C-alpha cells in the first residue's frame, strides 16, 4: 500500500484548537441533550457525574500499552481491551491532553447527536500550516466553523445527491474496464497465466485513477502498462505526504521549520498542489474554448465547480485536492478486504456472481440502477466496513457547549474518541462478530438488537464523509469484477493479504 489513510493517521494524533465565536445550540434529538441539561432541575444536574469521576489509563500506563505491550501499530485493538477494563466510557490522559473514549453504540449516538452546527473532528494543524505558508485555501477536511459549512454546502450536492453521483458511473466503469485489462496483462506477462502479484498495489492505482477521473474529469494513466512519469510523481507525492504527516504532527508547531523532514513535507505538498493546479487550469482552458466556440459546456464535478463560480479558483483547488487525498486508500483498502473474503469464501463469491448475472445478463455493463437491485453486493461492502473500518476511531470536539453523555457532563472543548472498532465487534449487536457474514445486513436476517450506530463507517451527521456515494459506486462497480473476468479468484499467500506484494490466483471458470 502506498500510504496510510489521512483519517486513520490524523484523527487522534492532533491536539484540538476549536474555532472561536461559536454559539451554543440545543440538539433536538439527544435523550439528555445539552439544551435540556441547561434547563434541567438542580436535582437532575446534581446527579450528573463529571470527568473527574471517570476511570482510565494515565500517560505512563498508555505508554506501557503502546510500547511495552506493542499496541502502537494496532491502537484500534486497544479499544477493545480498554473497554473490557474500564467499561464503555473512560478517559485517557496524554500530558495536558485528555481524551474521552466512548465504546458503546448508545453513547456514540449521544455524542454525535449533540455535535452542534459546526462539528469539529480534528484541526489538522500540519496541513493547515502548509496552506497558510503558500496562501492556499483550506478544504473540507481542514476548514472549520461557518466557512467549513459554506464549503460543504457547495461541494455536497454533486458528491452526495444520487442523481448526480449516478452520472459518474460511465467514468468509473471505464476505469474498471482498464483494471480488468491490466489484470489480464499481469496474469499473462508476469503470473504464468493465473497469478496477479501485489493486488493491493494495483487496487490503489485503480482507486487513484477512479477518483481522479471523477474529480478532474481526466485520465491520469495509473493503470497503463507504463505509468506516465508525471502521474508516478503525483502518486509518490501523495504517499510521501501521508508518510510524513503522522511524524510531523508528533512535534510542537514551533519546531516544525527546524525539523529535517519539514522541507520535504512542504515540497511534496508543493508538487501535489502543482499537479492539481495544472489539471484544474487545463479544464478551465477547455471550458473557455467551448464558450468561445459557442458550444455547450459539458462536464461533471470540476466543470460544475468552475462554472458555478461559487468558489474562487484557489478554493476549488484546496477542496479538490483534499477530496482526492481522502478518496484513494479508503476505497482501495476496503476493496482489498472485500476481495480477500470473496477469494477465501467461494460460496459468498458464487452468490455475488449469480446476483450480478441475474441483474446484468450477458455482457451488460452495470448501471447505477442495476446496482440498486443487488442487495448481496451491498451487504458484502457493509460487512467489510464493519470488520475493517477505514476510520476505526473517529473524533469530535464539543466546540460549542458542554454536553451530557452516559450520565456524565463534559465541558466545552472536550475531545471525544469514538471507538467504532470496538463497537463493530460488540457481540450483543453483531453475534459472531469475528465472522464475515454479509447476510446479517439483509433485511430478513437483521438481528433484533441491531443498533443504527453499531457500524457507521462513513461517520454521521453534517460532517460525515463527503465521498460516501462516490466511494460506494466505485466499490460496487469493481466488485462485479468476476462478471468481467469470467474467472473465479482464490487467494495465494493469503496470510499476508491485504498488505503489499500479495498475489491472487485466477482460475478459469471452465476448469
Ligand atoms: C470506503 C471508503 C470511505 C470511507 C469508509 C470513508 C469514511 C470517512 C469517515 C468515517 C469520515 C469522517 C466522518 C465524520 O467525522 O463523521 C470521512 C470524511 C471525509 N471523507 Fe470519506 N470515506 C471513504 C471514501 C471517501 C472518498 C472516495 C472521498 C472523496 C471523494 C472521501 C472524502 C471525505 C472527505 C472530504 C471527508 C471530510 C468531510 C468533512 O470533514 O466535512 N471519502 N470519510
UniProtKB/TrEMBL annotation:
One of its GO terms (biological process) is glucocorticoid biosynthetic process. The keyword Metal-binding applies. One of its GO terms (cellular component) is mitochondrial inner membrane. Coiled coil: none annotated. Keywords: Heme, Iron, Metal-binding, Monooxygenase, Oxidoreductase. GO terms for molecular function: heme binding; iron ion binding; monooxygenase activity; oxidoreductase activity, acting on paired donors, with incorporation or reduction of molecular oxygen. This is Uncharacterized protein.
Amino acid at each position: 500500500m502506498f500510504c496510510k489513510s489521512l483519517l486513520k493517521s490524523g484523527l487522534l494524533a492532533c491536539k484540538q484548537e476549536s474555532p472561536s465565536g461559536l454559539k451554543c445550540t440545543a440538539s433536538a434529538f439527544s435523550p439528555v441533550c445539552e439544551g435540556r441539561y441547561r434547563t434541567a432541575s438542580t436535582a437532575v444536574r446534581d446527579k450528573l457525574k463529571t470527568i473527574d469521576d471517570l476511570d482510565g489509563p494515565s500517560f505512563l500506563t498508555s505508554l506501557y500499552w503502546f510500547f511495552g505491550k506493542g499496541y502502537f501499530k494496532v491502537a484500534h485493538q486497544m479499544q477493545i481491551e480498554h473497554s473490557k477494563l474500564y467499561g464503555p466510557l473512560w478517559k485517557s490522559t496524554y500530558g495536558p491532553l485528555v481524551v474521552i473514549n466512548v465504546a458503546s453504540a448508545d453513547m456514540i449516538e449521544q455524542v454525535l447527536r449533540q455535535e452542534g452546527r459546526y462539528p469539529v473532528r480534528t484541526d489538522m494543524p500540519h496541513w493547515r500550516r502548509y496552506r497558510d505558508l503558500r496562501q492556499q485555501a483550506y478544504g473540507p477536511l481542514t476548514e472549520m466553523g461557518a466557512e467549513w459549512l459554506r464549503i460543504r454546502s457547495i461541494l455536497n450536492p454533486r458528491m452526495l445527491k444520487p442523481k448526480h453521483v449516478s452520472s459518474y458511473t460511465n467514468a468509473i466503469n471505464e476505469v474498471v474496464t482498464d483494471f480488468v485489462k491490466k489484470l489480464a496483462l499481469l496474469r499473462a506477462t508476469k503470473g504464468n497465466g493465473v497469478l496477479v502479484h501485489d493486488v493491493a498495489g494495483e487496487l490503489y492505482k485503480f482507486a487513484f485513477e477512479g477518483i481522479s477521473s471523477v474529480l478532474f474529469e481526466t485520465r491520469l494513466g495509473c493503470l497503463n502498462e507504463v505509468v506516465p512519469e508525471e502521474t508516478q510523481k503525483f502518486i509518490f507525492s501523495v504517499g510521501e505526504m501521508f508518510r510524513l504527516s503522522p511524524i510531523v504532527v508528533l512535534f510542537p508547531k514551533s519546531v516544525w521549520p527546524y525539523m529535517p523532514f519539514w522541507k520535504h513535507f512542504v515540497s511534496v505538498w508543493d508538487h501535489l498542489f502543482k499537479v492539481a493546479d495544472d489539471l484544474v487550469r487545463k479544464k478551465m482552458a477547455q471550458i473557455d474554448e467551448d464558450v468561445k466556440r459557442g458550444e455547450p459546456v459539458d462536464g461533471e464535478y470540476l466543470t460544475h465547480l468552475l462554472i458555478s463560480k461559487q468558489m474562487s479558483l484557489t478554493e476549488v483547488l484546496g477542496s479538490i485536492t483534499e477530496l482526492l487525498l481522502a478518496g484513494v486508500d479508503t476505497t482501495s483498502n476496503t476493496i482489498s478486504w472485500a476481495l480477500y473474503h470473496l477469494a477465501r469464501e467461494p460460496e459468498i463469491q458464487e452468490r455475488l456472481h449469480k446476483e450480478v448475472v441475474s441483474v446484468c445478463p450477458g455482457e451488460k455493463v452495470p448501471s447505477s440502477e442495476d446496482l440498486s437491485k443487488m442487495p448481496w453486493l451491498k451487504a458484502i461492502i457493509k460487512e467489510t466496513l464493519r470488520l475493517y473500518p477505514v476510520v476505526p476511531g473517529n473524533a469530535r470536539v464539543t466546540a460549542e457547549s458542554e454536553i451530557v453523555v452516559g450520565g456524565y457532563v463534559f465541558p466545552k472543548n472536550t475531545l471525544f474518541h469514538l471507538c467504532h472498532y470496538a463497537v463493530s465487534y460488540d457481540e450483543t449487536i453483531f453475534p459472531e462478530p469475528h465472522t464475515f457474514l454479509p447476510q446479517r445486513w439483509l433485511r430478513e436476517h437483521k438481528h433484533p438488537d441491531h443498533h443504527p450506530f453499531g457500524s457507521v463507517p462513513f461517520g454521521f451527521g453534517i460532517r460525515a464523509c463527503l465521498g460516501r456515494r462516490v466511494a460506494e459506486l466505485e466499490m460496487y462497480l469493481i466488485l462485479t469484477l468476476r462478471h468481467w473476468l469470467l474467472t473465479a479468484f482464490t487467494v495465494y499467500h493469503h496470510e499476508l493479504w491485504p498488505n503489499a506484494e500479495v498475489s491472487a490466483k485466477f482460475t478459469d471458470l471452465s476448469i
